[in-house]
Known about the structure:
Blueprint: H1 2-20, H2 22-32, H3 39-65, H4 75-100, H5 109-115, H6 123-149, H7 155-170, H8 175-195, H9 198-209, H10 212-217
Amino acid sequence: MHNALKYCGNILLFIILIISTQIPILLLKILFKNENPHLILGWVLVISSYLIIIWGVNYLIKKQTQQAVFKPLRLSDFRFSLMMFVVLILFKGLFLQFLSQLPTKQTFANDKAILSLVNHHSLLLMVLVIVILGPIAEELIFRGYFFSKFFKNHPWLQILISGLIFGLLHSPTNLIIAVIYIVMGWILGYTYYKRQNLSASLTTHILNNAPFIFMLFY
């Protein structure tokens, strides 16, 4: 009974952590969609909310594992992260080619929603959120916390389920587009599993998001 309650508590906390990652996005929508006079306040609130999430999840994982969450990135870790990034890019290219053949045009709702928030005031903040803070928070929750709490003796279940949740949350209304995010979640989960280092999956995540900067400028 105690174990069942503890497991339910872990699930509830996981859901709360996922919901918490939407707080900075909501703040961006409120503060930066229009010309807003409270620019400095907006920056402080968005960055602070991410830092609180990152600190909180980092604390929970460290308390569970009794180890540093982000270990130093070794050269072998970086090489593996880079290889997984290449695999992800190749998959995206092939899948997008497939989508181009479909009669109905598919849109990336998650990316479109983020781009719609960008104006000349929030540009630098969006880069910080998309390339640094967002990936750190997501890796801590979907890889760090999930792997430390659920299916500990079944790594392939960890990869499969965490990737599914990650993908569906990024594209909840379009299952075809969700496939890209699901596969991305699987690749990030596999990277973490193989290297046992959240810095490795974070590196792949950042490499994936970095080209998004060019979409903001052009």
